[in-house]
Amino acid sequence: MQTWNQTAPIYQQLADRLAVQLLDGDPPEGEAMPSVRVLASRYLINPLTVSRAIQALSDMGLVETRRGMGIYVRPGAREALMKSEREQFLQEEWPALRERLARLGISAKDLNWESQ
Q1: CA-based torsion, 51, 37, 29, 82: positive or negative
Q2: Positive or negative torsion for Cα 61, 66, 72, 74
Q3: d(CA 40, CA 60)
Q4: pTM of the model
Q5: Would you give the DSSP letter of residue 116?
Q6: Residue 65: what are its φ and ψ, rounded to 5°?
Q7: Running DSSP on this structure, what letter comes out for residue 65?
Q8: Do residues 44 and 65 make contact, with C-beta atoms less than 8 angstroms apart?
Q9: What is the residue range of 106's domain?
Q10: Cα gap 66→47, rounded to integer Å
Q11: Strand partners, 66
Q12: What count of Cα atoms within 13 Å lies in the side-chain half-sphere of residue 87?
């Protein structure tokens, strides 16, 4: 079961989750997204909320609606999303993380990049 937090609207949280899936290549570029009805059922939310999430992805240029056919992942969506996510990480998350690592006395040699 999916859990939603109070920090952002549910449609934005869903858009973020779907963007992560797109970043992972699911579904691949050029392929159809699950329908609004399927997503609403999967995440147990209102179809209008799903539609807002899809619209957010569309506004970002990641998906397109093809009348009568469904919602498709646009070519180049993964690369655009990766570029955007990298920029956000490097500008917003990395400085705070680097500061916390320094505060805790953790250096690069202490980090194991291979473990998951």
Answers
A1: positive
A2: negative
A3: 21
A4: 0.84
A5: -
A6: -95, 125
A7: E
A8: no
A9: 1-116
A10: 18
A11: 70
A12: 6
Q: Which two tokens stand for residue 43?
A: 């995440």
Structure tokens given for 85? 């996510």
Model confidence pLDDT, tens digit, residues 46-77: 999 999 999 999 999 999 999 999 999 999 99
The structural domain count of the chain equals 1
Q: Which long-range contacts (CB under 8 A, 24 or more apart) does 4-9 make?
A: none
CATH number of domain containing 56: 1.10.10.10
Q: How far apart are the first and last CA of the chain?
A: 24
Residues 6+ apart with CB under 8 A from 26: none
Among candidates 62, 65, 58, which has minimal Cα distance to 28?
62
* Paired strand residues for 63: 73
